[in-house]
Predict the structure of histidine kinase.
Amino acid sequence: MSVGTSSAPGSREARRAPASRPPGERADLAGLGIDPDDLPDGLVVADEHGRVICFNAAAERVTARRAADALGEPLERALPLEDLEGRRWWQLTDPYGGLAIRVRQPERNLLLPGGREVLVSARYVRVRPTGPVHRVVVTLRDTEARRRTERSHAELIATVAHELRSPLTSVKGFTATLLAKWARFTDDQKRLMLETVDADADRVTRLIAELLDISRIDSGRLELRRQRVDIGAAVGRHIQAYVAAGQPADRFLLRVQQPLPDLWADPDKIDQVLSNLIENAVRHGEGTVTIDVTPAASPREGEDAGTSVTVSDEGPGIPEESMNRVFTRFWRGSKRGGTGLGLYIVKGIVEAHGGTITVGRAPGGGAEFRFTLPVAAPAFLA
Ligand SMILES: Nc1ncnc2c1ncn2[C@@H]1O[C@H](COP(=O)(O)OP(=O)(O)O)[C@@H](O)[C@H]1O
Ligand SMILES: [Mg+2]
């Protein structure tokens, strides 16, 4: 049986990598007890005729091609790679023709049709040094994930710069005007300008505090100082603060279902979660803001008790198609101020506690946010 041409392209046989490799090669991988499909990187192998004899699962994922289609095809058709200048890579490198001492192609960033970027390196296996190429072994790595994080960092910086600029422009504008024309303004005008400056300075401070939280969340450095938390009382304090600041008391409804399991959490962080959710309900929602505190099944498997907090309002709610985006940074649905960071931080804090958060539609029509925290009692009490 001649190697590499044995399996019909597209057949089931061909898809199963072991059947498509010669016995010697198979022993190597099989000796380790692994299949090419177990490799984390894409692996494509071509035989001495340049026909593909192995196209593993990761290669399918990276190229978005099916192994069944690629097997048996010439390498340049199965992997139509181009460099960033649009030149066909296989023609350029000519593995079967080029210098007979060449054994590899170093890792390069190349493009697949449709602009898909891949990190490619290749090795030419020769029967003997300077002999003809017996196998071309190509590994493929997806650069998409790395690109995405790079892009999201770049976007974050651009957005942050933009968010900081508008309040600072206003601070600079008002202070410059006041300094230049102090005597020409009435006390009321001066007060109004200083109030705007004050509010804008608050906004910058808040934005920076939120960004620091985000960097802690993103880098997994969010520290939790767990204590026993009475979450019903915490919600009560937030409501009192709103009422003291002028919201009508009947705008809020707090329902605590007893008995609740003990809750061990970081009280400051939980306050931050509550403050964000209640503020959103007041600012983006309408009508009565209802907060339900109930015992719940723990979001962690194997633990049976947890606490759920549901914050719902009677406003316009979150459109169905945006629900999966509310927890992403800088997503803002309405124009009512805000940085769009609040819910991202809320989710980060809840998840750092081992909890979960979901968004849905409230019975009253508005938005409904529910988070569930596990008891998380410290080990010394267990
Ligand atoms: N209770 C709510 N009702 C309607 N929309 C909401 C509610 N809570 C949040 N949203 C929407 O989700 C967006 C993101 O919220 P958030 O991350 O807290 O940012 P911010 O409040 O700073 O805009 C808000 O801009 C708003 O459009
Ligand atoms: Mg908010």
Summary: The chain is about 40% helix and 20% strand. Residues 47 and 135 are 5 Å apart (CA to CA).
